[in-house]
Here is the input.
Amino acid sequence: MRDFALREIGCICCLQRGIRSECEKHHLLSTGRHGNGRRLGERHTVGLCSYHHQGAKSVGTAAAEQMREQYGPSYADEAQAFREEFGDDEALLEIQDRAIAAWADSTIGGVR
Here is the structure.
């Protein structure tokens, strides 16, 4: 159910900026740092759009500058700035879990 909810909710960083976008599943890591550590499991996942997840790799360097203005920092390109704006892994997971709970309550029957 979590994967379906992530797709339905979209990128939690874009949502914080009032933007609706599709997302990819991002696995949080044991170190709390992008790119190193082991995955904590499927319960520790958040939805990030390709820009917030992969940064310039997903949109190209020139477009990434424009994207940064509109969408804020990406996790891949500016992890520290990303955490300052959107929260650390613990905060992201809390935001995602609250969004999933609200999504579940709004679906037919409120089934989780």
Notes: Strands lie at 24-27, 45-48.
